[in-house]
Model the fold of this input.
Amino acid sequence: MLKGLGAFLLRTLLLGALSVSAQAGENPSLKSELLRLAHDWEHVKLQVIDRDDQERQMADLAQRAGKIAEQYENIPDPIVWVGIITSEQASLANENGSPLKALELAKRARDILEMVEKTEPATMDAAAPTTLGLLYDGVPRFPIGFGDKVKARYYHQEAVKYAPNGLDANYFYGEFLYRQGELAEAIKVLEHALTVPGLLNRPIWDKSRRAEIRKMLSQPQKGVRTPAQ
Done:
């Protein structure tokens, strides 16, 4: 029933830049906590093999992110992380055969990230609008879910507006355009993504994203079309 949700989550949850807002950058303690949270998130996402254990550890991370957000309630970065980790929980729930739970978590992530997007859209290289673009693109449409290609496009465009040199923002917008068949614009966005500065604090992820971009750019470029009206 939620095949589309699974496709979204397969793409989404490599996202989570380690850049921070000015407010977080001015607070060494918070910056350190966010860095540890990000590294632990990557460990659970990429290195924990057992799905049940992965789901349990991700729930622990969600609680930890929530406590950080409560402690630093006026800083958007921890809230963005709550949204990202909640999205990851949705992915794991879907993979573990709980589609209704997955959709509920996806809705929760959407609500959290929309709250940040309205006030601090540029936080963490526009992580909130980037993830919202993925959510609206990949979640099933009404009446099952809240998927909406128009909103997905809007949020992806917002992401590249607020993070024109963000690897995540450009990669996921380029991928969206590519899957929509808008290859001319997709190529432009993806080629720009390859020129942005490397993520020095995430070299493995940076290398893998650029490899995916090059793979997309190497595919046969057929059926170019303009955006749907």
Q: What stands out?
A: The domain at 3-217 is CATH 1.25.40.10 (Serine Threonine Protein Phosphatase 5, Tetratricopeptide repeat).
